[in-house]
Amino acid sequence: MKTLNAAIIGCGAIHTTHVEALRQLPAVTLRAIAECNINRGRQLAAEYDCQLYHDYREMLWDDAIDVVHICTPHYLHKPMILAALAAGKQVFCEKPAVINALDVAEIDAALLHAKGTLGICYQNRLNPTSIAIQQQLQDGTIGKMLAIKAVLTWSRGGGYYTDSPWRGKHATEGGCLLINQAIHTLDLMQWFGKGVTRVKGVVDSSWLADIIDGEDSAMATFAFANGARGLFYASNCYTTNSPLQMEIHGEHGLLQLEGSELWLLRDGARQKLASDSAPDGSGKSYWGVGHREAIRQFYNAVRDPAAAKVCGIDEAAKSLQIVDAIYRSSQLRHWITLEK
């Protein structure tokens, strides 16, 4: 098996999850990191025994690098994806791929001429509970889906934004709560409901209004392509990070995601189906444990494109479209119909 050389651009909080995932993959080596903070970069390069680049564009000239991981602030994702694809690299990027849904077309155009592929990290689709929900729906366990509701209440204090000034700004984050913390929940809801056709939503800012120029809370109602309706509420104003609460109501029962555990309620009985708890205690309990699997699947796709299981730009665009629709609905105060 050929050894694949990886590089990571951006050494913020999430990059360590990528490093740990790479260490568990056979025939994969972390060759380089690109980090604009020189002192931090030197420390990490020594720890990882890899090369340090101050400018990621210089790193892309290294022909030995096969795969590039993009772990930078949101507004840098698009130019870095385009540059890495132009350099012939395989690219794995943290969400969102872009901060404007209209920019998806530019990424699509670049992929038409690229040697490499692009994977976007929507790791929550790979949580054991998410996989179990999808399987239950496919099997028809609860009959026709009637509705989905989801509640996401996390805590983000002032320091979270002031320590990383790109956060909380439309120009650099693309919004706030919806495009960062809640986008995975929106993605799961549309995935289970086979797409969203209409949205009516409201965004607002309360506790964080003096710190951010985006929303810290949002609610929305959805019409799904499978005929179900959706109810959604999310906020960064809680005092702790609670696991996602989700319930799917079907003709013959309920699927309930509570405290990272999935339960089936049917015929007066309650059965546990799956859990997202990591056996080794790694990862953040409130966002699941799917990162490792997402990265593993991407490398499998690099080695064997025919067996690819990767969330690409077109799948990633679906949740971006929903985020954009909620923002527009909140401004216009009416339903927004999503284009197919």
List keywords for this structure.
340 residues; alpha/beta; 6-stranded parallel sheet; 11 helices; NAD(P)-bd_dom_sf; Gfo/Idh/MocA_Oxidoreductase; Gfo/Idh/MocA-like_OxRdtase_N
Q: What does this entry look like structurally?
A:
- Residues 5-111 form the Gfo/Idh/MocA-like oxidoreductase N-terminal domain.
- It comes from Citrobacter sedlakii.
- Residues 133-255 form the GFO/IDH/MocA-like oxidoreductase domain.
- This is Gfo/Idh/MocA family oxidoreductase.
- It holds the Pfam family GFO_IDH_MocA_C3.
- This protein has 340 residues and is of the alpha/beta class.
- The protein is 31% helix and 26% strand.
- The chain is built from 11 helices and 15 strands.
- The protein has helices at 15-23, 38-48, 56-59, 77-86, 104-112, 128-139, 158-162, 170-173, 183-192, 291-303, 313-332, and strands at residues 4-9, 28-34, 51-53, 67-70, 90-94, 118-121, 145-153, 196-204, 217-224, 229-235, 245-250, 253-258, 261-266, 269-275, 336-337.
- It has a 9-stranded mixed beta sheet with strand order 14-13-12-11-7-10-9-8-15. A 6-stranded parallel beta sheet has the order 3-2-1-4-5-6, with helices on both faces.
- A hairpin with a 4-residue loop joins strand 9 (217-224) and strand 10 (229-235).
- Helix 1 packs across helix 10.
- The longest helix has 20 residues, at 313-332.
- The protein is globular, with a radius of gyration of 20 Å.
- The termini are far apart.
- The relative contact order is 0.15.
- The mean pLDDT is 94.
